[in-house]
């Protein structure tokens, strides 16, 4: 059973109608092909209309769609091989952050990403994609390995934030993220960062300092979630739509403000409708971008990486 | 009939004409409630002589405590915030900034200065919490970045005094990227082998903790300061339990290994000078 979001209701109705019609046709052996074709055309048209005019809040909803592909789904669909590596060598392994060496179309890369769960048990295991300090330290340990063996780094970002828990504070959540920001600037190998779902604040940025930072079409990336922003600035949880508008947190907004380098298109209706097509598109971009970045020297990459982030910000002199 | 008849009108000095002791001669400690002279309090680097409570002070007071004879050159003092996102919540962002400027006399939540501390040249960036919660927007990021550039150019140590609730929401994505920008500059400062001291004062949380505040060669703090990534309220809501006493205090953070030392503000200047002299 597909999950429809509130704004997809008209599509859901038509698709139910289509399914009923097909079922009826099967049972009574009546040819309804012309009618179903017309209905299908209607559905596509409607979907196009709805998805051309998505509000920012609707994109946030899509980025959290329960059927949306997660890091491990992409790994399975894109990589010929993947060897997962565990642990930060200090405290424990963080299941909310995964990483390992992967073979993507003949190119071996280090792949890192936050991981969410599909059902209740998995979600708890993955801590809803909210890493602890160990997660960021594991990511850094693996990135240093990639640097040592001269392999490019690809990070897939999908997190509602770094975990705000008791132990996370005790083990230095702030320090762990800060260290990653600083160290990632000096990595000698190409670094490509892609927001595949939610990009919430420092928890996302902690693995998102790259030569190229890209966003999938229906994702968000900002300093705070619309809900938390609403609760702080409007002192109520009810203004999330307005908060999403005000934060300008979509891929298009972030590109317009030159805070990211590019947008990767999703299949019509969202990445969750066709994991295969989405993964193929993503793989193509990863391979092309790595090839492009590999032409530069490590010094060029580092200095361009630093200059790019240092140019961000609007001040009046 | 009474024996005494008031022939003249009673005393009717209007309030504004009343003579009293001038304001600000005495200081009452908000923690132990004891009274001391304002002058004494100031000489004590704005700490209580009875209970050692560290008054929350701004850049003005820190510069006065640290720079010799309070002499320094302020860097980029006219940088002010733009409104890249046309952000409107309950009121437009520029209105909020303008109102805060009028109220505080500050341009934004950080001031940067270059001067001498016990004869040692130093660049100091100090945050002001009363400017929109010491929040980090483009101006804060840019001024810190330029202050670090100044440190690198003149090969002098950099001291960052943080006091902030975190990112400035009204600059959303721009605010987030200031974490990246300042970290990039600190990476360069590190490469240049110039000492970076980060002083985390009460409170330092959010994106500031998760970037420059935790990246010092030396991370230090003042007694009792609140230091954390997530704020106490958020953590309480997440775990659904009350937090242990002293959680996220400077002492707690030191015990868990993320601070080098805690220093009383009245000893700050001399201790920093000793440390820097050992590195020269």
UniProtKB/TrEMBL annotation, chain A:
Main location as per UniProt: cytoplasm
SUPFAM superfamilies: ClpP/crotonase
Localization: Cytoplasm
Protein EC: 2.1.3.15
Any single GO BP term: fatty acid biosynthetic process
Record has Hydrolase as a keyword: no
Swiss-Prot/TrEMBL catalytic activity: N(6)-carboxybiotinyl-L-lysyl-[protein] + acetyl-CoA = N(6)-biotinyl-L-lysyl-[protein] + malonyl-CoA
The protein's annotated pathway: Lipid metabolism; malonyl-CoA biosynthesis; malonyl-CoA from acetyl-CoA: step 1/1
Group of enzyme by EC: transferase
UniProt protein name: Acetyl-coenzyme A carboxylase carboxyl transferase subunit alpha
HAMAP family assigned: AcetylCoA_CT_alpha (MF_00823)
Keywords carried by this UniProt record: ATP-binding, Cytoplasm, Fatty acid biosynthesis, Fatty acid metabolism, Ligase, Lipid biosynthesis, Lipid metabolism, Nucleotide-binding, Transferase
Domain CoA carboxyltransferase C-terminal: 38-292
Function of the molecule: Component of the acetyl coenzyme A carboxylase (ACC) complex. First, biotin carboxylase catalyzes the carboxylation of biotin on its carrier protein (BCCP) and then the CO(2) group is transferred by the carboxyltransferase to acetyl-CoA to form malonyl-CoA.
Family as reported in the entry's similarity comment: Belongs to the AccA family.
InterPro entries, per database record: Acetyl_CoA_COase_a_su, ClpP/crotonase-like_dom_sf, COA_CT_C
Assembly notes: Acetyl-CoA carboxylase is a heterohexamer composed of biotin carboxyl carrier protein (AccB), biotin carboxylase (AccC) and two subunits each of ACCase subunit alpha (AccA) and ACCase subunit beta (AccD).
GO terms for MF: acetyl-CoA carboxylase activity; ATP binding; carboxyl- or carbamoyltransferase activity
Organism lineage string: Bacteria, Pseudomonadati, Bacteroidota, Cytophagia, Cytophagales
UniProtKB/TrEMBL annotation, chain B:
EC number: 2.1.3.15
UniProt cofactor note: Binds 1 zinc ion per subunit.
Localisation: Cytoplasm
The keyword Methyltransferase belongs to this UniProt entry's keyword annotation: no
Cofactor: Zn(2+)
Matches recorded under Pfam families: Carboxyl_trans (PF01039)
UniProt: Zn(2+) binding residues: 29, 32, 48, 51
Annotated GO CC locations: acetyl-CoA carboxylase complex
Superkingdom classification of source: Bacteria
Claim: Ligase is one of the keywords in the record: yes
Molecular function GO terms recorded: acetyl-CoA carboxylase activity; ATP binding; carboxyl- or carbamoyltransferase activity; zinc ion binding
Reactions catalysed according to its record: N(6)-carboxybiotinyl-L-lysyl-[protein] + acetyl-CoA = N(6)-biotinyl-L-lysyl-[protein] + malonyl-CoA
CoA carboxyltransferase N-terminal domain segment(s): 25-280
Pathway: Lipid metabolism; malonyl-CoA biosynthesis; malonyl-CoA from acetyl-CoA: step 1/1
InterPro entries: AcCoA_carboxyl_beta, Acetyl_CoA_COase_Trfase_b_su, ClpP/crotonase-like_dom_sf, COA_CT_N
Zinc finger feature spans (C4-type): 29-51
Annotated PANTHER family: ACETYL-COENZYME A CARBOXYLASE CARBOXYL TRANSFERASE SUBUNIT BETA, CHLOROPLASTIC
Description of how the protein assembles with itself and partners: Acetyl-CoA carboxylase is a heterohexamer composed of biotin carboxyl carrier protein (AccB), biotin carboxylase (AccC) and two subunits each of ACCase subunit alpha (AccA) and ACCase subunit beta (AccD).
Function noted in UniProt: Component of the acetyl coenzyme A carboxylase (ACC) complex. Biotin carboxylase (BC) catalyzes the carboxylation of biotin on its carrier protein (BCCP) and then the CO(2) group is transferred by the transcarboxylase to acetyl-CoA to form malonyl-CoA.
Family of this protein: Belongs to the AccD/PCCB family.
Name of the protein this chain belongs to: Acetyl-coenzyme A carboxylase carboxyl transferase subunit beta
Lineage of producing organism: Bacteria, Pseudomonadati, Bacteroidota, Cytophagia, Cytophagales
Protein's gene: accD
């Amino acid at each position: 059973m597909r999950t429809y979001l509130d704004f997809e209701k008209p599509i859901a109705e038509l698709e139910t109608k289509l399914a009923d019609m097909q079922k009826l046709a099967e049972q009574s052996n009546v040819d309804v092909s012309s009618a179903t074709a017309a209905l299908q055309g209607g559905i596509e048209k409607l979907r196009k209309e709805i998805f051309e005019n998505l509000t920012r809040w609707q994109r946030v909803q899509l980025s959290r769609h329960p059927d949306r592909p997660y890091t491990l789904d992409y790994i399975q669909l894109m990589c010929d091989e993947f060897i997962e590596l565990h642990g930060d060598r200090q405290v424990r392994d963080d299941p909310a952050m995964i990483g390992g060496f992967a073979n993507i179309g003949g190119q071996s890369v280090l792949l890192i990403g936050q991981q969410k769960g599909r059902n209740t048990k998995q979600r708890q295991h993955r801590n809803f994609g909210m890493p602890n300090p160990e997660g960021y330290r594991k990511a850094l340990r693996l990135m240093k390995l990639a640097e040592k063996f001269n392999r490019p780094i690809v990070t897939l970002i999908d997190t509602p934030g770094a975990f705000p828990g008791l132990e996370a504070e005790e083990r230095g959540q702030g320090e762990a993220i800060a260290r990653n920001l600083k160290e990632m600037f000096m990595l000698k190998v190409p670094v490509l960062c892609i927001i595949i779902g939610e990009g919430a604040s420092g928890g996302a940025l902690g693995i998102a300092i790259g030569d190229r930072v890209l966003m999938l079409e229906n994702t968000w990336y900002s300093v705070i979630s619309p809900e938390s922003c609403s609760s702080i600035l409007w002192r109520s949880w009810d203004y999330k739509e307005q908060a999403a508008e005000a934060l300008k947190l979509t891929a298009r907004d972030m590109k317009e403000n030159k805070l990211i380098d590019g947008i990767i298109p999703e299949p019509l209706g969202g990445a969750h409708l066709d994991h295969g097509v989405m993964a193929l598109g993503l793989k193509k971009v990863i391979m092309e971008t790595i090839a492009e970045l590999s032409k530069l020297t490590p010094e060029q990459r580092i200095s361009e990486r630093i200059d790019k982030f240092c140019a961000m910000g609007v001040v009046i002199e | 009939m009474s024996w005494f008849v008031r022939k003249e009108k009673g005393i009717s000095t209007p309030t504004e004409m009343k003579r009293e002791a001038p304001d600000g001669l005495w200081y009452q400690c908000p923690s132990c409630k004891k009274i001391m002279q304002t002058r004494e309090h100031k000489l004590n680097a704005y700490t209580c002589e009875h209970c050692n409570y560290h008054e929350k002070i701004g850049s003005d007071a820190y510069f006065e405590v640290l720079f010799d004879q309070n002499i320094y050159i302020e860097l980029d003092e006219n940088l002010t915030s733009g409104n890249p996102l046309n952000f409107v919540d309950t009121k437009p962002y520029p209105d909020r900034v303008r109102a805060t400027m009028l109220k505080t006399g500050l341009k934004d939540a950080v001031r940067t200065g270059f001067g001498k501390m016990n004869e040692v040249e130093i660049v100091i960036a100090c945050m002001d919490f009363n400017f929109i919660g010491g929040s980090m927007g483009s101006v804060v990021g840019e001024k810190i970045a330029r202050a670090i550039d100044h440190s690198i150019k003149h090969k002098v140590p950099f001291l960052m005094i943080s006091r902030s609730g975190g990112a400035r929401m009204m600059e959303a994505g721009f605010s987030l990227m200031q974490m990246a920008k300042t970290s990039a500059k600190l990476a360069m400062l590190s490469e240049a082998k110039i000492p970076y001291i980060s002083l985390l004062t009460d409170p330092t949380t959010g994106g500031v903790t998760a970037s420059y505040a935790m990246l010092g060669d030396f991370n230090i703090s003042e007694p009792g300061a609140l230091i954390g990534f997530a704020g106490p309220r958020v953590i309480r809501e997440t775990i659904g339990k009350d937090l242990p006493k002293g959680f996220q205090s400077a002492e707690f953070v030191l015990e868990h290994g993320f601070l080098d030392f805690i220093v009383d503000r009245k000893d700050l200047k001399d201790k920093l000078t000793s440390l820097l002299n050992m590195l020269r």
